[in-house]
From TrEMBL:
Name of protein: Cep192/Spd-2-like domain-containing protein
Species name: Candidatus Nitrosopumilus koreensis AR1
The entry's keywords: Coiled coil, Membrane, Transmembrane, Transmembrane helix
Matching SUPFAM superfamilies: TSP type-3 repeat
Coiled-coil region list: 209-257
Record-linked Pfam families: Cep192_D4
Single GO term (MF): calcium ion binding
Length: 278
């Protein structure tokens, strides 16, 4: 890129034959004027193997306008050659970028059939050196039967015990040893776990059991706390019942001590209901 002299100090006048002449006498070719400079982060993206009908994780590339005066805008467009297996999933780009600005485009691969797939993204811009940039896209569609995550020869779609060798079944019960809680793994010598003995079948399974034990312990503590609350409530009810019985006894004693309740009924007659004459 070529940088002109400070524009606030020089006067630029257009001249024929593609040259500019400055007031101080220097001559610059016309192509020296700053133009946008596009930068793209990737030239290819490989999505690897993806099961037919499923989608890959999203892969991204970025576009940036690297150079140019503040007023020089990079104009561009994005097109996808094959939208059958590859898709633009996200796009923060518009149609232009100012100097220093960038944007991101996300792609996913969803094969519709087995086999290797190829496509490309074309970025057309007014960059003065590279007006067309291609990003090659690769991916391979595979069937469910071709996926064997644990390498035991059993496809994931038929794998009874993922992460373990399904072909090892010491007690021939149809459950691979890696998922059979009744069989000790080979690291423990094989055979059946006898009562009172223990052996680690799988660290992940052991962690799950440990987590369940912790959860059970927490629930037991919660139950203990609730039982304590229930006991406290029962005691409170018992105390209130006793207080109520005491209050009723006091009322009964007061009634027994009233003058109309003694032996001399004539002298201490009950006043009767208020407002009525005898």
């Amino acid at each position: 890129m070529h940088q002109l002299l400070d524009m606030d100090k020089k006067i630029v006048l257009p001249l024929l034959f593609g040259f500019f002449i400055l007031s101080v006498g220097f001559i610059y070719p016309a192509y020296a004027i700053e133009k946008p400079d596009i930068i793209v982060s990737h030239t290819e993206i490989d999505f690897g193997d993806v099961v037919v009908g499923e989608s890959s994780s999203e892969s991204f590339f970025s576009i940036a306008n690297l150079n140019g005066p503040e007023t020089v805008t990079l104009n561009f467009s994005i097109s996808l050659d094959d939208a059958t297996n590859f898709t633009i999933a996200s796009n923060s780009c518009g149609a232009s970028l100012l100097p220093g600005e960038s944007c991101v485009v996300g792609l996913i691969f969803t094969p519709i059939s087995d086999g290797a797939k190829h496509s490309s993204v074309a970025i057309l811009s007014d960059d003065h050196e590279t007006s067309v940039i291609l990003i090659d896209l690769f991916g391979t569609g595979i069937s469910d039967n071709a996926v064997d995550s644990d390498g035991d020869g059993v496809p994931d779609v038929d794998d009874v015990c993922e992460g373990f060798d399904d072909t090892v079944d010491t007690d021939s019960d149809g459950i691979p040893d890696g998922c059979d809680i009744e069989v000790v793994p080979l690291s423990c010598g094989g055979g059946t776990i006898q009562q009172g003995n223990e052996c680690v079948v799988d660290p992940a399974l052991t962690q799950q059991v440990s987590n369940l034990e912790d959860t059970l312990e927490e629930k037991n503590q919660e139950i203990t706390t609730l039982n304590g609350i229930i006991d406290a409530l029962e005691q409170t009810i018992a105390d209130l019942t006793a207080q109520l019985e005491d209050a009723l006894q006091i009322i009964a004693d007061l009634e027994d001590g009233m003058p109309w309740n003694n032996n001399n009924a004539n002298e201490n007659a009950s006043p009767g209901p208020i407002g009525k004459k005898p």
